[in-house]
Amino acid sequence: MPDKPSITSSEIGTLWMTYQQKTLIICLLDYMIEHADDEDAKTIMTDLREQLIIYIRKIKTIFEKEGAVVPTGLSSQDVNVQAPKLFTNGFDIMFLRVIKEISMGMYTLSLGKAYREDVVKFYQDLTKITQECYDSCTQYLLRKGILSRPPYIPMPTTVEFVSDRKYLSGLNVFADKRVLNTMELAQIYHGVETNIVGMKLMKAFSQTAKDAEVKKHFLKGKELSKKIITRLEEIIIQDDISPSVASTGSITTSETPAFSDRLMLTCDILLSNFSIGSQAFGAAFSFRRDIVAKMMLIGEDAFQYASEATEIMIKKGWLEVPPSIN
After folding, report:
1. Strands (E), 23-131
2. Model confidence at 242, in pLDDT bands (50, 70, 90)?
3. Minimal CA–CA distance to 133: which of 51, 57, 190?
4. Which superkingdom, per the lineage (predicted)?
5. Tally of CA atoms within 13 A in the half-sphere of 256 that contains its CB
6. What are phi and psi of 251, to 5 degrees?
7. Which of 272, 259, 262 is nearest to 28 (CA)?
8. Where residue 177 falls among pLDDT bands split at 50, 70, 90?
9. Residue 297 neighbours by CB distance under 10 Å
């Protein structure tokens, strides 16, 4: 009898997906470490890189012991560390913070699909590393004044219960809307913050993409992020709340490719899928129906955009196929 059971189809799938994401992050880190703004940022990224390399090797070992092919993922061929600086004024850590937020969600989902003890431990350990890195990024950005905190409000002093269905209303443009609750404001503010990062990243990718079709796609992504930001800020402004966030870093004017078009599209799809999930989560925890409707429309736009990126990847022969069940 074997010492441990074989890995299940679910575990193969989640480990395969984790390998894709981790090799992507390593490529991003290799470039960003080379061009880090300061030693604190460099330390955050270097420490993370050293830890992630260990987990990439662990996935390889699991697949090899199980007789499964090791995925291709992304490699040093997909990054040019000698390219001029593309991210500045803390954008590297701002971008990494978003990536780590995505990672936290992915590991939680993957942990729910893990059964073998070593795979469970694998995701538990990765979750801890990711949470610590996310906090390091957040504290760094706050110290530098690059990341602003969400709006402050008066502390609640009473407990109330909904007494009227009007609490759910909001679709009637001629009727008054109730003020936002804190859960709704949190989702909207988060959406503005992450889409500002996405808008700047798409600008960087469009500047440095080699393929004309890929460049056009990233320009479309930049405009989509702008549209989403405007839609969400409109809701906040109605309650006399400033929607502005801090600088979130900057993009230089460099047009020299730092990353392959395949890597940038892979990253683009990851971020778009994160947006789809975020909008679904936001809609689920919002009560005002106009907010739910906007979240669903944004999610649909993100889905269409991600689908276009996938089509381009297929056309170019860049999309690696997940393991099949037969």
Report:
1. 87-88
2. confident
3. 51
4. Bacteria
5. 12
6. -115, 135
7. 259
8. confident
9. 14
**CB contact burial 215-243 (16+ within 10 A = b; e otherwise):** bebbbebbebbeebbebbbebbeeeebeb
* Contact status, residue 97 vs residue 130, Cβ threshold 8 Å: no
CATH fold match for the domains 9-144 and 172-316: yes
Residue 87 β-bridge partners: 251
When pLDDT is cut at 50, 70 and 90, the band that residue 173 belongs to is low
Residue 118: partners with Cβ closer than 8 Å, 6 or more residues away: 4, 62
Give the CA distances from residue 216 to residues 62, 95, 213, 274, 317, in Å, rounded to whole numbers and listed in that order: 39, 22, 5, 21, 18
- Give residue 293's pLDDT: 92
C-alpha closest to that of 208 among 60, 78, 62: 78
User: In one letter, which amino acid is 225?
Assistant: S
What pLDDT sits at residue 1?
43
CA 117, 118, 119: angle at the middle one, nearest 5? 90
pLDDT tens digit string along 110-121?
Answer: 999 999 999 999
C-alpha neighbours within 13 Å on the C-beta side of residue 171: 7
Whether the CA torsion 89, 274, 178, 158 is positive or negative: it is: negative
Q: Is the pLDDT of residue 251 over 70?
A: yes
CATH topology classification for 172-316: Ferritin (1.20.1260)
Which amino acid type is present at position 120? V
Nearest-angstrom CA–CA distance, 27 and 31? 7
* Superfamily, domain 9-144: Ferritin, core subunit, four-helix bundle (1.20.1260.10)
Cα–Cα distance for residue pair 33/213, rounded to 1 Å: 29
Domains in the chain: boundaries: 9-144, 172-316
Count the residues in the chain: 326
Are 252 and 84 spatial neighbours (Cβ–Cβ below 8 Å)? yes
